[in-house]
Amino acid sequence: MRSMWKGSVSFGLVSIPIQLYAATENKNVSLRQVHEADGGRIQYKRFCTIDGEEVPYAEIAKGYELPDGEMVVLTDEDMSELPLASSRAIDVLEFVPLESIDPIHFDKTYYLEPQKNAVKPYVVLRDALQKASHVAIAKVAIRQRETLAILRVHSDVLMMTTMLWPDEVRVPDFGFLHEDPPQVRPQELTMAGSLIDSLSEPVFEQEKYTDSYREALEAMIEAKAAGNETAKPKAVGAKADVVDLMEALQASVSEAKKTRKPSTAKKATAAKKPASGKRTPKSA
To answer: Does the predicted model carry a pTM greater than 0.85?
Structure first.
């Protein structure tokens, strides 16, 4: 695991320097869109819908579309001016029982590792949470977005789970909720209870369940690879008419991270318009 964020857990007058790690990972099999005939990858261009020119990654900003279609453009400088009171700090606000929080509010989960000089206060907070059977409610800012979070103990490690804000949880408003409920006979309710009892276990053992779809997909890929049922796309020259956009985007991202300025080569190819019929994902 690689540390993705450094900061501190702050509660009362105590500050615990920590490093943040993603606690989960997506195990989905990554598949590309390809041309069935030859295995060539299907890619798309980032281009401006007004001038038709390809846009370098460094020149892409964020925008908010108003109801009348006008666009409010927000630059990196604009975004940096927004106040984030809890930046680089996990600010503990209160302590509550875990069962008082509905899991629908849970978002992403992270491990917290203490920095070398902070092991003792880290262990104190960890053990105190376990003894109190409570979790800490905190506020934190990650990737320029402030959110609530809970701190709890898992496998002797402090774990942080970010939470959705109350207005981000949709209220169910289905038609049947406003109608008279159907009459349920006692026998039907008893039978349903018997079914629950027959399938009940004292604890949830997640290890006994597996992702059968992913296992079958991986087996299919391995079988095709073993039987040489593969396609080797032809190399595309530097002056080819067809552009491998994924490679171009990956190169653009790498270059942007290094210099944050478009290269001369990208400027030279920026004037080419995308082929008709191509669809471009709409920016958020």
So the answer is: no
C-beta of residue 131 within 8 angstroms of C-beta of residue 138: no
Tokens for 101? 């929080």
Q: Please check whether residue 120 lies inside any domain of the structure.
A: yes
The dihedral built from the CA positions of residue 118, 120, 124 and 126, taken in this order, carries a sign that is positive
Mean pLDDT of the chain: 81
- Structure tokens that stand for 6 in this block: 């450094």
Task: Yes or no: say if 117 and 132 are a contact pair by the CB < 8 Å rule.
Answer: no
- Report the distance separating Cα 242 and Cα 34, nearest Å: 14
Read off the CATH number of the domain in which 139 is found: 2.40.290.10
Full domain range(s) for residue 125: 5-37+84-168
DSSP 177-201: GGSPPPP--HHHHHHHHHHHHHT--
Considering its fold, how many domains does the chain have in total? 1
Residue 145 within any structural domain of the chain = yes
